[in-house]
Amino acid sequence: MNELVISDRVLAWFAHHGRRGLPWQVLRTAYRVWVSEIMLQQTQVQTVLRYFPPFVERFPNVTALARADLDEVLRLWSGLGYYARARNLHRTARILVNEYDGNLPLDHERLQCLPGIGRSTAGAILALASDQRHPILDGNVKRVLCRHQAIEGWPGHARVTKHLWQLADEYTPHQHSVAEYTQGIMDLGSMVCTRVRPRCGACPLRADCRAHAQARVNDFPEARPRRGLPLRRTTFVVVRRPDGCVLLERRPTVGVWGGLWSFPECSSEKDAKDWCLRRFGQRPAVSLRLPLKRHRFSHFHLEISPIVLDIAAPQRCVMEVDSVLWYKGGESKIGGLPAPVAGLLNGLLPNS
DNA sequence: TAAGCGTGGTT
DNA sequence: TAACCAAGCTT
Predict the structure, then answer these.
(1) Which of A21, A94, A281, A334 lies 20 to 30 Å from A170, alpha-carbon distance?
(2) What is the pLDDT of residue A346?
(3) What is the pLDDT of residue A215?
(4) Integer CA distances (angstroms), A256 to A190, A253, A266, in order
(5) Which residue has its C-alpha nearest to nucleotide B8's C1'?
(6) CA of A94 to C1' of B7 (A)
(7) C5 C1' – A44 CA distance, angstroms?
(8) What φ, ψ does residue A29 adopt, rounded to 5°?
(9) Which residues, given as ranges, of chain A have pLDDT below 70?
(10) What pLDDT, on the 0 to 100 scale, is given for residue A285?
(11) Cβ–Cβ under 8 Å, residues A51 and A39
(12) Strand B positions closer than 7 A to protein CB
């Protein structure tokens, strides 16, 4: 088997050990492959399995997605993270309806012009849904290539990335079975050529793997250069009315949790009380400090001080003004909530 | 070019 | 625990 070219060895391995039966593999339309590829960006399969079925059930095709409100799309995306993906998915669906008769263009250049679709996602859509010959380069493929060719340097470095794309292209079969090879090389990376303790004994590429030959499998791929993560502190102001409704506001599109609903933020507890006084003309009757919550983001740590301000003035139960609303669990068609905000709400709302 | 973008799994 | 990473893309 080792005299076979790489793609044939991957295909043979895939035929016996490949991963099958994932929801986007069973009913493999271009739309479902697209949605799954977007969800799978920087996100593990196990996580996507919880989000993909409800999403495609509510939005079974491009038209359904394009017709929906962005808020509803974000609601089904809540907790998945990287919310720009959801905004781009929605925006692209509307472009497809307006310019492509509701279909994804099965064209490498045109796909990459659509929001949220880069080179790898375009390649994956075309390879998996259309069997066209285009390489992909995700984390799994990078790891396989880095080890097989003993590539030095961090894969995120531009020079290394360029090299990896070249290799990914060379490894892709020219004549047939591009879809299966693409699935196979990813499965190989996720099931055999794993980040820690790879199962080299089960690898069809072991015979000519340079990292294995040098007994340096653990040296590849090189880790990202380290930086200390800065700590940001913020205060979540939970303004609560006597009926239990809390004030939420839509966050700006840019920045963390863009376009999602969250609590107003202040720089300190004192600022929060001053802000409450200015906004509602009263000092809160009760102020309750909740435990600090630390959150880890890719580029910083966030320390949240949640403070609950109970105000006395009765106001209309449902106030929806563009980007501000009083929220009481359940009945409202609330848009997307960041996971930490959803967690806080669960502990605060009376009927949840 | 490199920083910014979320959350959960793993060690 | 804290660091690292995951079916990357955008600006």
Answers:
(1) A21
(2) 85
(3) 95
(4) 29, 9, 16
(5) A47
(6) 27
(7) 10
(8) -95, 160
(9) 1-2, 313-321, 331-332, 350-352
(10) 76
(11) yes
(12) 1-11
Q: Is the C-beta of residue A259 closer than 7 Å to nucleic acid chain C?
A: no
Closest of A200, A199, A196, A195 to residue A212, by C-alpha: A200
Instruction: Identify the residue whose tokens are 């340096």.
Output: A216
Report the distance separating Cα A200 and Cα A220, nearest Å: 14
* Residue A31: how many other CB atoms lie within 10 Å: 25
| Domains in chain A, CATH or no CATH each | 6-219 (1.10.340.30), 231-348 (3.90.79.10)
| pLDDT at res. A352 | 43
Token pair of A62, please? 């491009």
Which CB contacts under 8 angstroms, 24+ apart, belong to A8-13?
Answer: A8/A173, A9/A204, A9/A205, A10/A171, A10/A181, A10/A184, A10/A185, A10/A188, A10/A204, A10/A205, A11/A173, A11/A177, A11/A180, A11/A181, A11/A184, A12/A204, A13/A184, A13/A188, A13/A192, A13/A204
Residues of A labelled as active-site residues: 37
pLDDT at residue A347 in the model: 82
pLDDT of residue A315: 59
Which positions on chain C have an atom < 7 Å from some protein CB? Answer: 3-10
Residue nearest to nucleotide C7 (CA to C1'): A40
Tell me, what's the pLDDT at A283?
A: 84
Nucleic strand C under 7 Å from the C-beta of A161: no
- Count of residues in chain A: 352
pLDDT at position A316 is 54
CB A320 within 8 A of CB A243: no
According to the model, what pLDDT value does residue A1 have? 54
pLDDT of residue A319: 55
